[in-house]
Amino acid sequence: MLAYSGKRLLQALVSVAVASVIIFLIAEALPGDVAQMILGQYATEESLAALRENLGLNQPLHVRYFDWLSGVFRGDLGTSLSKTGVKVGPLLLRRARNSLILAAGAMIVIVPVSFLLGIIAGLRPGSWFDRLISITTLGLISFPSFITGLVLILIFSVQLGWLPASSSLDLSQSFLSQLQKLILPVLALSGVMLGYITRHIRASMVKVLRSDYTRAATLKGVGRRAVITKHVLRNALLPAVTVIAINLGWLLGGAVVVEATFGFPGVARLILNAIQHRDIPVMEAGLLFVVTAYVTVNFGTDILYTLLDPRIRYSRGES
Amino acid sequence: MAKGSPDLAPSPLDRIKNGFSYLSRLRRKPLGFAGLIIILLWVLISIFAPFITPYGPTEFSTDKFAGPSLTHPFGTDRWGRDVFTRVVVGSRTAFTLALSATLLGLAGGTALGLSAAYFGGWIEEVLGRMMDILMSFPALLIAMFVLGVLGPGTLNVILVIGLAHTPRIGRVARSATLQVKNQEYVEAARVRGESDFYIMGAEILPNILDTLGVEAAIRFAYSIFLSASLGFLGLGVQPPTADWGLMISESRSYLQVAPWLAIFPALAIASMVLGANFLAEGLEEVSGGEQR
What is the CATH number of the domain that holds A175? Predict the structure, then answer.
């Protein structure tokens, strides 16, 4: 178990390291000259050259990469190019916190609802409830979140006027007023994943219900209730852990559409704006954050999964 | 699994018969059949687009922000362009993007997945690792990067979505190949001394087509989904092209005064993705998903 965790941790670290190189190279490949961007198009050739020297842009690629990386480790992510003088570190922290709040909100909606619907539908495959769930969830995964978001805005903001359409989160305000701003983005973000995870849980319930060990337990004379709670649920819900974790990463990066729809100040929109404005320090920091979060979640899931499922623990312990 | 007797590869005639029985069985799956009808309707609409649109897609008029009426069934936008025309012509943009991206991903994914499973060993290991890495990032995030570097535009959107599909289709192609690669007809071809290339193309590929077909329908739906999202973010097809995602993005400032600008393109996207997903579900049931 310990050996496995160690190996898995090393793998995670390597992934982040590789990703950091790729992010740096992509930032390098972006068209446009940083010095020109800072000084504007009327800058003289001399001032441009001086700034390039100053920023270290004349250094070779690997030197600049390690400069950047050591900055990351010291917690110095540089200053934004498009918002003059703004430190990237605190900006990123603020945005990341907002994104985490949004993702957590979506999880609070998704996990209980999808488990409940998936289990009920999976227990009676082919019933009218199962068919209803099947069609509804297909619908949910078919609507991109900006469409769900716009429909919600049209109904709850434009028509009813109950909830705000844009959500510039401000945590110094009262909790309740901020909660109001979160409701629509959370719902819009939940849609696709809710459908996806419900379908997953339903399918794995059906599979386990038809398995030999479920049949064996039933034939042994175990009551249906006990079969379901002791054998079926445990085995059917385990895979769901992985699916949810994979989607947690998606919630952080894929939230860009929802953030754009509601003007939500999250990390994904920060990256999008940075790419559009060629704000390289912000872009690099934002991407590195998302990748690290993603890899961390995956690592945590693998470890959790091993703890929960003895079969994997033993098979991995031996190899 | 392959149909027909397990030790013989199906003849071309069998395959054509199989194709027909496939479609006729789809008719008994209400969901899948509904999906087929929706997609066929959109195909007809996009083919006959020039004949059913009363205006040009970029034709301006002085009739701005007009609500739905007889002259403008879906209303007009801030330049006075006819929204009905733009939704109809937008189906061509959607098909162009989604079909090309799906085919690209299908070609790349099948080539990688099939050869990974066929050769096994270190080739499978290396290809598998590459696909895992590519797949471990949200497709939209990869698309955002690549379009940031390459710049937006139709061709780049197709490339990026095709790239995002490749590892996912690759995984499906790999597991389908693993199921048939030890069948006796593959063994027989090997004994006959056929080349690896021939065996992969003529013996294995035809027998994983039904699995790939289901996957293609799912990827087509996701292509529409992704390209609409990219259009919405301003990273996709550029104005003044009639693109559904772009139209919705442009409508956002006018939701209060002109909600029809958002509603009709949204219905178009939703119906096309839903149709493709229904179709995928039906195809999966027909091609032996029932046992699962």
Answer: 1.10.3720.10
Pick from A73-82, B12-21, B194-203, B237-246: least confident: B12-21
- Taking the Cβ of residue B229 and every Cβ of chain A, the question of whether any pair is shorter than 8 Å is answered with yes
Q: Is residue B122 part of a domain?
A: yes
Test mutation, A146, A148, A166, chain B, max B CBs within 10 A:
A146
CB contact under 8 A, B274 and A15: no
Tell me the nearest-neighbour CA distance from A165 into chain B, angstroms. 10
Give the total number of structural domains in chain B: 1
Residues of A in contact with B140 (CB under 8 A): 253-254, 256-257
Closest CA to A210 of A189, A232, A192, A230: A232
Flag whether the pTM goes above 0.95: no
A259 inside domain: yes
Number of domains in chain A: 1
- Parent domain of B199: 29-49+83-291
Q: Mean pLDDT score of chain B, rounded to an integer?
A: 82
What is the interface pTM, i.e. ipTM, of the complex? 0.77
Here the CATH number for the domain that contains residue B166 is: 1.10.3720.10
Answer yes or no: do B277 and A141 touch at CB < 8 A.
yes
Q: Is B88 within the bounds of a domain?
A: yes
Is pLDDT at B64 greater than 50 in this prediction? yes
Lowest average pLDDT, out of A83-87, A239-243, B40-44, B120-124, goes to A83-87
pLDDT in tens, B72-89: 777 777 777 877 888 888
User: Which structural domain, as residue segments, surrounds residue A291?
Assistant: 102-278+285-315
Q: A275 vs B252: CB contact, 8 Å cut-off? A: no
CB of B19 less than 8 A from some CB of A: no
Q: Identify all chain A residues contacting B233, using CB atoms and an 8 Å cutoff.
A: 256-257, 260, 272
- For residue B164, being part of any structural domain is answered with yes
Q: pLDDT digits over A150-176, tens only?
A: 888 888 888 787 877 776 666 666 667
Closest CA in chain A for residue B142: A253
